[in-house]
Amino acid sequence: MTVKYDKINTNLFILNRINLCKELKNNSLAIFHSNDEMSRNGDCFFPFRQNSDLFYLSGIDQEHTILVIFPDCPNPSYKEVLFVRKTNEHIKIWEGHKYTQKEATEISGIKSVFWLENFDDIFKMLVNWSENIYINENDRANSDVDSRNLRFTKKIKNQFPAHNFERSGPILTRFRTIKSDIEIDLIKQACSITEKALRRVLSFVKPNVWEYEIEAEITHEFTRNRANGHAYTPIVASGANACCLHYINNNAQCKEGELILMDFGAEYANYASDLTRTIPVSGKFSPRQKEVYNAVLSVMKAAKKMLVVGNLLDSYHQEVGVLMEQQLIKLGLLSATKVVQQDPKKPLYKKYFMHGTSHFMGLDVHDVGNRYQTFKPGMIFTCEPGIYIPEENIGIRIENDLLITEDGPIDLMEHIPIEVEEIEALMKK
Question: What pTM did the predictor assign?
Answer without folding.
Answer: 0.95
